[in-house]
Amino acid sequence: MDDAHLTTQPAPDPREAAAALDRASRLAWTTRAQGWRWVRRYLTGWAVASVGLVLTIGLGGRAGFFVGMAVWAVVVAAGTAWSSRQGATAAGTARRIFVGAASWAVVYGVALFAGMSLWPGLVAYWVPAALVSAAPLLLAAWLPTRHDAMATA
């Protein structure tokens, strides 16, 4: 390539360069914060819905099962649609959602199996079981992240 075709740009003023870097850093932090904020809302909403689902199934008998699953289908569709419109995702959020979802599925399955086999309709079992079903999602949502540590530094 011929050097005559190269155009030289003047070096940016150090103050302008520092301002541009500062702006880029603030935008990156804001994007990460927004990405974590919607994931936390999503997982918290899922946890609340799980409490309702487990209580409905556990205390509602056969009708509770069908009502719970029908409402759950609507909740899942709404959550999926809402999460797909959120845009920015922060590094680590997909892993948090996966770990929260997988952990929830195990706890949910064990709670339902044990409750339906041993304690159908027993409020003393189903209320704690419903609350415990929310724990993996709430932990995934609210355990501190590396982003949180960077924000306080």
Q: Describe it for me?
A:
The structure is a single chain. This protein is mainly alpha-helical. It has one domain (37-152). Helix content is 80%, strand content 0%. It contains 5 helices and no strands. The chain has helices at 14-59, 61-84, 93-118, 123-142, 146-152. The mean pLDDT is 84.
What are the main properties of this structure?
mainly alpha; 153 residues; 5 helices
Give the arrangement of secondary structure elements.
Blueprint: H1 14-59, H2 61-84, H3 93-118, H4 123-142, H5 146-152
Helix pairs in contact: 1-2, 1-3, 1-4, 3-4
In a few lines, what is going on in this structure?
With 153 residues, the chain is mostly helical. The protein contains five helices and no strands.
Helix-strand topology string: HHHHH
- The total tally of domains equals 1
How far the N terminus sits from the C terminus, by CA atoms, comes to 47 Å
The main sheet comes to:
none
Percent strand equals under 5%
Q: What would you call the shape?
A: elongated
Low-confidence residue ranges: none
Number of helices: 5
User: What is the CA-based Rg, rounded?
Assistant: 24 Å
Mean pLDDT: 84
Structural class: mainly alpha
> How much helicity do the residues have?
over 70%
Give a count of the beta strands, DSSP E runs of length 2 or more. Answer: 0
